[in-house]
Specification:
Layout (H helix, E strand, L loop, with lengths): L2 H49 L5 H25 L4 H12 L4 H9 L7 H16 L3 H4 L6 H19 L4 H31 L5 H16 L4 H17 L6 H8 L3 H9 L4 H4 L3 H21 L4 H18 L3 H47 L1
Helix pairs in contact: 1-2, 1-3, 1-4, 1-5, 1-7, 3-4, 4-5, 8-9, 8-16, 9-16, 10-11, 10-14, 10-16, 11-12, 12-16, 14-15, 15-16
Length: 373
């Protein structure tokens, strides 16, 4: 190895060592920022859970913890995985250490990007290495976190803690929904167990066991909601009308997939910060999509109260946007999102009843088959 090559190697060693120190120092900034982003998303979810019955506090806390972990991991990934070639490091350290582009020039000379005579190259590298030897990276690159991300993290954590501490009225709706599902499940299991036990003990014939299940099936059938199918059809029609725009495609996809609460949340976003970011052209496009969705709901069943209410709210939002009354439009969008969530709950309850009826039918057929063998 020549003397020039040795000096270039020494220079790269300095850059590599300082680069590791820089990544470590930046980790103390990027990790808190990532955690703050995770907390921000968690706080948004916690506030949404106060508007719609999304999830219980314990599950929400787990989701928030996962978001914070993902955020911190993403921040560390930025600090440690972001490419840092020698040329970029040289520019960074020239600026941070006040080396007046010595490092940048030396790296360009070493890579033959800057032509120089051997004597000039030797002199440049010698001067750069002497300057580098005087640098104390521990003083120039201190390992301490920036105050701004830490303050943001603490503020968001405080707000999130407060949101968990304050009572959430939506949890009552979640508990009631869970209680209804559990009661239906217990009724089905009890009917099936009683029929099976009676058949095994000889206390009932297969016909009597099937009759018991049929009785349970009739009781469950009384819980059916005839209007839910029409409501589901209306939401599907609205999804079809909103699928052709980038602004409402996520709402349409959620409705088509049966994720009604997610669709309501996506619509509600336009009543807040997401709506503030729209240009006038995008606002008018959103108005067209909402108006088309309202027409689709009206065509589905104009006499169904929930369909009518949702359609009117969407239409009111569209009209308010067109005349430039954005405040009224956002209020109507928020109400429409709430109505969409309630309509979705009605559809979901009917789907749960249909699944339970299917399970009862299957159990009745199994008992009938067992009795015939």
């Amino acid at each position: 190895m020549t003397n020039l090559e040795s000096r270039i190697s020494n220079l790269k060693t300095y850059l590599r060592r300082w680069g590791l120190r820089l990544r470590l120092a930046e980790s103390l900034t990027w990790a808190p920022w990532g955690g703050a982003v995770g907390l921000g998303l968690g706080l948004t979810l916690a506030l949404a859970a106060r508007l719609w019955p999304l999830m219980m506090a314990r599950r929400l806390a787990g989701v928030v913890g996962l978001l914070v972990l993902v955020g911190v991991t993403a921040g560390l990934a930025v600090a440690w995985l972001w490419p840092r070639p020698s040329f970029r490091l040289a520019r960074v350290f020239d600026r941070r250490f006040g080396l007046a582009e010595r490092l940048t020039t030396a790296v360009e000379v070493g890579a033959d990007r800057l032509r120089a005579t051997p004597a000039m190259a030797q002199a440049q590298l010698t001067d750069t290495l002497n300057a580098a030897a005087r640098i104390d990276p521990r003083a120039m690159l201190p390992l301490r976190a920036s105050r701004r991300p830490l303050l943001a993290f603490c503020a968001l954590a405080t707000a999130l803690t407060l949101s968990f501490w304050l009572p959430n009225p939506q949890e009552d709706a979640l508990l009631q929904r869970a209680a209804v599902r559990e009661a239906e499940r217990e009724m089905l299991l009890q009917a099936l167990e009683e029929a099976t036990a009676a058949l095994d003990e000889g206390r009932a014939t297969p016909e009597e066991a099937v009759g018991a299940l049929s009785e349970a099936e009739r009781a469950l059938a009384e819980l059916q909601d005839p209007g839910a199918a029409t409501a589901r059809e209306g939401l599907d029609r609205a999804a079809g009308e909103m699928a052709d725009s980038e602004l409402t495609r996520d709402i349409a996809e959620s409705l088509s997939n049966g994720d009604y609460q997610e669709a309501a949340q996506a619509l509600a976003a336009y009543s807040g910060a997401k709506g503030e970011q729209l240009t006038r052209e995008e606002e008018l496009e959103l108005a067209r999509e909402l108006a088309q969705a309202a027409e689709a709901l009206a065509e589905s069943d104009p006499d169904l109260a929930e369909q009518l209410a949702l359609g009117r709210l969407l239409s009111a939002a569209a009209e308010a946007i067109e005349r430039g009354d954005i405040a009224e439009a956002r209020e109507a969008i928020g109400q429409a999102a709430q109505q969409m969530g309630e309509t979705g709950e009605r559809v979901e309850r009917q789907e749960a009843v249909e699944r339970a009826l299917a399970e009862l039918q299957e159990g009745r057929e199994q008992i009938a088959q067992a009795g015939s063998t």
